Amino acid sequence: MGFSVHLLSDGISYWDGGGAFGLVPRTKWIKILPPDEENRVPQALRCVLVQAGGQNILVDCGVGDKPNEVIAAQYDVRRPNGNLLDDLARLGLTAADIHTVVFTHLHGDHAGWATRLAGDPPVCIPTFPNARYYVQRQEYHDATHTNERTRNTYFPDNYVALTEAGVLTLLDGEAEIAPQVRVAPTPGHTAGHQSVLIEASPHWQNEALKSAPALILGDMATYMIQFARLPWVTAYDVLPLVNIETKRAWQAWAYSHGALLISPHDTQTPVGRLTKTDKGFFTVDPATL
Ligand SMILES: [Zn+2]
């Protein structure tokens, strides 16, 4: 198996550009990400497979395949190349081969494949039967105590069955998941949001990771432009001012380490590196793993 990192896809969705860019004027963001005639912008449903220390670790798991009225009405999911399980199959893996699932957070576009429907009558069971799942305790609390603002972003059928099956571990802050793979709290998009840090090591088969670390951002920055520009936060961020401070700290880290950044939703730049323009502004240049 070795040590390697692979980008996976659960498809692509189209969602309202105002939700994606919040207070940023439309006249500005349309130059970065042109919307369609209904003002929707593309959103990749990207997941990451990290193979390390004999473990297959899945970071986030798309929208899944359970019927969901909100996703049906607001996401317009398209899967020309199949779903997340199809992408795993292309790597020769089945759901049973996943040892670990890490959630950056529990929003519906990140936790969908955590469970699937099975039986008659159908009930939710863990999709990955041999996996232990990890999320921050704060995130699980918030996802199970929703309010009018958060209700349509969290879908309990994605994760309550994990608790019932006894396969969900609640984390309190930083934790090591596997050799060279750690999670770190990155609050803002949600209070209990976390990102995944991959340390540089000659062990990695990915050339770029031999000399530079990588950060799986999650929705700390939904699009790369939001990592480069501190005030650009989504309308979905529960704690936008906190997210700005989170990004400020991780910008400094990413720039000083030449880190690879892995985006959950950016269709133009799945992987990038933070650089500075001639005028001293941050920008994210495309990179390869
Ligand atoms: Zn997301």
Assess the beta-strand content as a share of residues. Answer: 25-35%
Overall form: globular
Total of domains: 1
CATH topology call: Metallo-beta-lactamase, Chain A
Number of DSSP E strands: 15
What is the H level of CATH, i.e. the homologous superfamily?
A: Ribonuclease Z/Hydroxyacylglutathione hydrolase-like
CATH class: Alpha Beta
N-to-C CA distance: 17 Å
Structural description of this entry:
With 289 residues, the protein is an alpha/beta fold. It has eight helices and 15 strands. The chain has helices spanning 17-21, 26-29, 69-74, 84-90, 137-143, 160-165, 224-228, 240-257, and strands at residues 4-16, 40-52, 55-59, 100-102, 115-118, 123-126, 132-136, 168-171, 175-178, 181-185, 194-198, 214-216, 260-262, 271-276, 282-286. A seven-stranded mixed beta sheet has the order 9-10-11-12-13-14-15. Strands 1-2-3-4-7-8 form a six-stranded mixed beta sheet. A two-stranded antiparallel sheet has the order 5-6. Zinc ion binds next to loops.
SSE blueprint and pairings:
Blueprint: E1 4-16, H1 17-21, H2 26-29, E2 40-52, E3 55-59, H3 69-74, H4 84-90, E4 100-102, E5 115-118, E6 123-126, E7 132-136, H5 137-143, H6 160-165, E8 168-171, E9 175-178, E10 181-185, E11 194-198, E12 214-216, H7 224-228, H8 240-257, E13 260-262, E14 271-276, E15 282-286
Parallel strand pairs: 3-4, 4-7, 7-8, 12-13
Antiparallel strand pairs: 1-2, 2-3, 5-6, 9-10, 10-11, 11-12, 13-14, 14-15
The structure holds zinc ion.
